[in-house]
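Sequence only, no structure available. Ideas?
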Amino acid sequence: MLKIDKRKIGRLLKIRRRKTPDQFQDKVKLFLRYLQKERGYSLHTIKAYKTDLSQFNQFLLEYTGNDLVELSSVDRKTVQHFVGSLSEKGLSSKSTGRKLASVKSFFRYLLKHAHVESNPASTVKAPKQHASLPKFLQKEVLEQILSHSDKDDWQLRRDKTILELFYSTGIRLGELVAIDVGDIQIDQKTVKVFGKGGKERIVPFGGKAAEALGSYLKERNIYVRKNLDDNPLFISKQGLRIPRRTVQSRLKKLFDSLAAGSGFTPHLMRHTFATHLLDNGADIRSVKELLGHASLSSTQIYTHLEAEKMKKIFEQAHPHA
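Reply:
I predicted one. Tokens follow.
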């Protein structure tokens, strides 16, 4: 009778398990590295792609009932079912559309590098999105928030400088926290920022922002940690580059204390910047360049906002409205 060595079989099975590659996860790692190294995407954007693709992977495991995902088994119907499952979970059309866009980008990369023979997601349509007009802050609210007090400590003065720069430039949160001292030219009233995909642009700012930055820089030099590898413009309580979450939480707290219900987010300042420019006669193409939009269509939503505003004025004032 043949004697079976269970330990050898155990070792053999372990070796086989180690040699069975997780094809999906391996390709996701390559894709994320490609986004960072070749496309210059921010870590925040890459993290969003990773989250979306991890969710897609989890869906595929449940959908197929297999322990590992074979990329060749993913077809158009599979991707459609994934989109349907997101809607069933109550995700908004916008969030579902973004996750589908991540899957499309992933398979486009795989096709380009000959890892798959076709892109099963290319013809899958995202749910229709109901365009929502961007919210913005009234000038009176901003003036109240930005007013200074003798009771303000250096961190609060820093926060108000950040707000002033947000309002004066319309830059994104990720762009703001990445600014180094050398990127600011106070005498020329310009700041160099790196937008989506690492695209560099020079953005002008106003006299009030220049004044706030000049005062802030004097205090910053007192609190910044010495011998840093970089030279961040905005620093935290610890003297290091200020994290995105700190900016978000502190500014929200500031707004809630003076203008409860404003629904503040850093992106709200971007909407406010664009809306106030257009309200005062700025050309939409100039606003597009200042915002760093790749396409004019991204900026045109602000013209819809102006149209809604004019419609309300008409309805209130015209006898036949």
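The chain has two domains: 18-112, 139-317.
Hope that gets you unstuck.
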